Amino acid sequence: MRRRYAAVLCAAAAVVAAGCSSSPSGPSGGGPGASVSTPAGGSAFRGATFVQPHPRPSFVLTDQHGQRYDFAARTKGRPTFLFFGYTHCPDVCPTAMADVAAALRGLPPQLRDTVQVVFVTTDPKRDKPATLAAWLANFDPDLKTRFVGLTGPQAEIDAAQRGAGVVLAEDEGQTHSAQLLLYGPDDLCRVFYLAGASPDDIAHDLPLVAKG
Amino acid sequence: MRFRPAYLAAAVALVLGAAGLLRGATAAGTPAGLSTGEPVGAAGAPTPGTTVGDITVGGAYVREPASPDVVAAYLSITNNGTQPDTLESVATGAAKKAELHDVPGARPGPATGQAGTEHRATGPLTIPPGATVTLSPGRGHIMLEDPTGRLKPGDRVSLVLTFSLAGQVLVEAPVVAIADPAPTGR
Questions:
Q1: Considering the domain boundaries, does residue A25 fall inside one?
Q2: Burial level of A83, CB count in 10 A (0-12/13-18/19+)?
Q3: Alpha carbon of A176 to those of A30, A123, A179, B4, B46: distances in Å?
Q4: Which of B180, B169, B179, B124 is closest to B30 using CA atoms?
Q5: Residues of the domain holding A56
Q6: Distance set, CA A20 to CA A171, A192, B103 (Å)
Q7: Interchain CB distance below 8 Å, B117 and A175
Q8: Per-10-residue mean pLDDT for chain A, 212 residues long?
Q9: Hey, is the C-beta of B43 within 8 angstroms of any chain A C-beta?
Q10: Would the CB atoms of B63 and A199 count as touching at under 8 Å?
Q11: Where are the domains of chain B?
Q12: Fewer C-beta neighbours within 10 Å, C or N terminus of chain A?
């Protein structure tokens, strides 16, 4: 309980504090995705939860193999992690991917193999498909269902972030949402994770989310 | 005649700056004949803390980078004294530059601070008496910019932290594989 409360308190700051940049920028722009809270009665999840579940967004980008990837169509009905970040991130982005991979390794294969993990770059200028492929291979080489890395035109990445309800990234993508979103088979996101969450927390929640 | 640890640490820093990264052959501790303070064995922590004056630095590790040119180090700083002490700077032989980033609540760096954003380089970090500040993913890190080589699990990275009162503290941070849990739990 304490952990969850702390995570929510951090949310407002953490969603914009995930980057790492020495370039100057304007003030934070706010944006959608601010309605973060937990149900008053507590929840079964260790992750932070949304009062209003967010529907699975629809967007089409290019994956790490250079192929068109329709997020809604490809992930529909499956437990899905969605994270916005960039490969030159030293801290939150690789930690999130490594934590998801660690959580998945501890789950039974019949559940693990159904889980989709989708990383959308907020830095499309640098993160081309080949960059994403090399970076993601650090995390998932032993997993049957490989992670998906997406890039594309900035406007379409912005639209994807709006669709997911996360704070729009700034500064060439380096200041970005730190929310690791988890959608269930019902195509709703009720729970998400910030940097303070552990692989154990994620592994705890995944079977609950997968049950729907 | 006795040398103060701070001066020795400064000498070590110069040597490290020239020699670059300490590779896997170096066991925990410091090069032969040099002392950088009293090792303090923190319970359960694989890397012993190093104490100089009232400052103990422990739990240091470097995460194996997923992008070779972007490296983050994490550690905890405890102020055992009765006065605030301030981490002024960090130096390393493993990269051209090391700086604090994203430390929550810390002052923004002089050249880059913007109201409402804490994702920038962080200015001097003050540790109140009796307090422990822990850098962990999402809660601040030491960014190693322009690493001098590709860091791999098993490597050890030297970090020299310079405090206003305690002087210089040398710690060695093991490089932890991407898929491995942090030695400190987070």
A1: no
A2: buried
A3: 11, 10, 9, 45, 33
A4: B169
A5: 2-20+30-211
A6: 10, 21, 11
A7: yes
A8: 40 40 32 43 84 95 98 98 94 94 96 97 96 97 96 96 88 79 96 90 96 82
A9: no
A10: no
A11: 5-176
A12: N
Of B102, B116, B120, the CB nearest to A91: B102
Mutate to test the interface with B, among A22, A89, A119 (most CBs of B within 10 A): A22
Quote ipTM for the complex. 0.76
**Of B147, B184, B171, B161, nearest in space to B64 by CA:** B147
Q: Side chain identity at B33, as an amino acid letter? A: G
For chain A, what is the domain count? Answer: 1
Calculate how close chain B gets to A209, using CA atoms only, in Å. Answer: 24
Write the residue in B63, B112, B116 that is nearest to A94 by C-beta: B63
Q: Which residue of B has its CA nearest to A178?
A: B138
Which is it for strands A48-55 and A60-63: parallel, antiparallel or unpaired? Answer: unpaired
Q: Are A201 and A193 in contact (CB under 8 A)?
A: yes
Structural domain contains residue A119: yes
B118 and A23 within 8 Å at the Cβ level: the answer is: no
- Taking contacts as CB-CB distances below 8 angstroms, the residues of chain B near A139 are 66, 178-179
**CATH code of residue A201:** 3.40.30.10
Of residues B155 and B123, the one with the higher pLDDT is B155
CB atoms within 10 A of CB A79: 22
Number of H helices, E strands in chain B: 1, 11
Task: Please classify residue A74 by burial: count the beta carbons closer than 10 Å to its beta carbon, then call 0-12 exposed, 13-18 middle and 19+ buried.
Answer: middle
**Looking at the partner chain, which of B115, B116, B120 has a beta carbon nearest the beta carbon of A22?**
B120
Q: What is the pTM of this model?
A: 0.77
pLDDT digits (tens, 9 = 90+) for B87-132: 999 999 999 999 898 777 666 554 333 333 334 577 789 999 999 9
A74 occurs within a structural domain: yes
Amino acid at B112: T
The yes or no reply on domain B5-176 and CATH 2.60.40.1890 is yes
For residue B127, give the DSSP letter.
E
Let me know if residue A176 belongs to a domain: yes
Structure tokens at A51: 């009062």
Please state, in angstroms and as integers, the Cα–Cα distance from residue B80 to each residue in B83, B124, B129, B131, B159, following that order: 9, 18, 6, 8, 20
Q: Which of B118, B119, B139 would best serve as a mutation to test chain A binding (most A beta carbons within 10 A)?
A: B119
